[in-house]
Design a protein that fits this description.
binds pyridoxal-5'-phosphate, 6-stranded antiparallel β-sheet, 2 domains, 9-stranded mixed β-sheet, D-amino Acid Aminotransferase, Chain A, domain 1, D-amino Acid Aminotransferase, Chain A, domain 2
């Protein structure tokens, strides 16, 4: 059987043989820029934009990946092509980039390495099972106890693998409800984001989402805003607080795998009439139309 191929710093290896050192800064420092792109019908979605965001993260992290964005794009397309045979026609995959600074040198300067950057590119099956039911039932959005790392300490726009704060937050909301999806607040109590997604409300016909002052500039966030614009739905980027979520007509998350995940409860309270709202459904349908694939059906067929 053909085994998935992984790109590691210039070589393609079978996934079971893909290794990095225990001294890699990815392990020692969590010092890794990352991107996760998905395919629709085996075609990568917004790959150039993901790579553009990756290079912005790398620039601010002062990591040199040893190739320019054009070569990264070409290399990524090669990795995808090499692996597409592993996915059935109705299946899609993640394309993941993890780029660490390289082999850490112990001592006073954490940016010192004894190698070039470790560039890892691989694909994984896009499993949507755990989100599938939320398209029709809506999820329960719950605020975590842990707050977001202040963007003044680690700019929220840098997409990186230092994930402890997100993991803690998500594990806290799972204590409240095992199926809850986290809403992380910033240190001022404003809504920032989910561990892997952005947050939107619809109130009085207006779509609202936090500005990127405290959240990742998500690709799905910008897709939702663009679709709304094309459909004449007014949208604003603004400060949102838990009160705004509790009193919204609709609430949803956006992220690369599920695109739009409706929420019908917030901290135990029903959102609107407690069902998935019309604007959310219109946006989801428009997204499916744009990518030529029924996003909800693809996920629910996995149940
Ligand atoms: C912290 C965080 N916020 C938001 C998102 C959503 O971004 P995108 O729409 O680009 O997947 C992600 C994606 O992984 C994320 O990690």
């Amino acid at each position: 059987m053909f085994e998935r191929q992984v790109y590691i710093s210039g070589t393609m290896v079978p996934e079971s043989q893909a290794r990095i050192s225990i001294f890699d800064s990815a392990v020692m420092l969590g010092d890794t820029a990352t991107e996760s792109t998905r395919t629709f019908g085996h075609h990568p979605f917004k790959l150039a934009e993901h790579i553009d965001r990756l290079y912005k993260s790398l620039k601010v992290m002062r990591i040199d990946p040893g190739m320019d964005a054009t070569e990264m794009l070409r290399t990524t397309q090669n990795v995808l092509q090499a692996n597409l045979q592993c996915y059935a026609p109705d299946q899609d995959c993640w394309i993941v980039h993890n780029i660490s600074r390289g082999l850490s040198v112990p001592g006073s300067d954490p940016t010192l390495t004894s190698s070039g950057a470790t560039v890892m590119i691989f694909t994984q099956y896009m499993c949507l099972r755990n989100w599938a039911q939320f398209y029709t039932d809506g999820c329960h959005a719950v605020t975590s106890m842990s707050r977001a790392v202040p963007t003044q300490s680690l700019d929220a726009r840098i997409k990186n693998r230092s994930r402890l704060a997100y993991t803690l937050a998500e594990s806290e909301v799972k204590l409240v409800d095992p199926l809850a999806q986290g809403v992380i607040l910033d240190i001022h109590g404003n809504v920032s984001e989910n561990k892997g997604g952005n947050i939107f409300v619809v109130s009085g016909g207006v779509l609202k989402t936090p500005t990127t002052a405290n959240c990742l500039a998500g690709m799905s966030r910008s897709t939702a805003l663009k679709l709304a614009d094309g459909m004449g739905i007014p949208a604003v980027e603004t400060i949102l607080q838990p009160y705004d979520l509790a009193t919204a007509d609709e609430l949803f998350f956006t992220s690369t795998p599920y695109c739009i995940m409706p929420a019908t409860r917030f901290n135990g309270l029903p959102i609107g009439d407690g069902t998935v709202g019309p604007v959310t459904i219109r946006l989801l349908n428009a997204w499916s139309k744009m990518v030529g694939l029924d996003i909800v059906k693809q996920a629910q067929d996995q149940l």
